[in-house]
Every structure is written in structure tokens, then in C-alpha cells.
Design brief:
Elements lengths: L2 H16 L6 E3 L15 H15 L3 E3 L1 H5 L3 H4 L9 H20 L2
Helix pairs in contact: 1-2
Length: about 110
């Protein structure tokens, strides 16, 4: 998908979901390691930048899973794979849960 299409689609989705009255949180994409099959390292950075811009424009909370995962990749991510080891998945889940609790507490 082109970057322009990604931005357009995100914009449409955010507007649609905000109209429901739901509290939105957008999770940024985790790092893509070298040699990942079917993925291009660096794409996630460009697409996360687009998502960040769209979410900030709409006041949507951002859970920066990229920044969370990056310093601990060797520990939590399967080598040459965008997926995570069991403990890595748990750490990401804990991060997401904390983000949700923060959003709930801010109401």
C-alpha cells in the first residue's frame, strides 16, 4: 500500500471510529528486523510517522510499541521475524494494558 493510501485510509478510519464516541488508542508498529520474510525494515518507521501525524491531528492517544520494543528486541523478538517470543508477547501485552488503563483513568 502506498504511503498516501495508508494516510487516507487511516484518516477515514479515525473519523469513523471517533463518531462512535469510543476512546481511541493507536498502537504503533513494532520494529521489523533484517531478513524478515515479506517485510522491509524501515517501512514501519515511515508508516508509524504517518500514523503519528494522523493520530495527533485527531487527538488520538498513541501507544508507542515501536519505542517500547526497540531497546529490548534481542530479548523479546524472534530473530529475523516480526513476531515475538512468548515473554516478549507478554511484555507487549502488559504495555498495551497499561496504555488502556491510562486512558480509562484519564476520563
Amino acid at each position: 500500500m502506498s504511503e498516501a493510501d495508508y494516510e487516507k485510509n487511516l484518516e477515514l478510519l479515525v473519523v469513523r471510529m471517533k463518531n462512535t464516541g469510543a476512546k481511541l488508542i493507536f498502537a504503533l508498529t513494532t520494529p521489523v528486523p533484517a531478513n524478515s520474510v515479506g517485510r522491509v525494515p524501515g517501512d514501519e518507521v515511515r508508516y508509524n510517522d504517518i500514523a503519528r501525524r494522523v493520530m495527533q491531528m485527531h487527538g488520538v492517544a498513541i501507544d508507542d510499541l515501536y519505542a517500547f520494543a526497540l531497546p529490548r528486541l534481542a530479548e523479546i523478538q524472534i530473530p529475523a521475524n516480526v513476531h515475538f517470543k512468548p515473554d516478549g508477547s507478554k511484555q507487549l501485552a502488559d504495555q498495551v494494558a497499561a496504555s488502556i488503563l491510562k486512558a480509562i483513568d484519564s476520563k
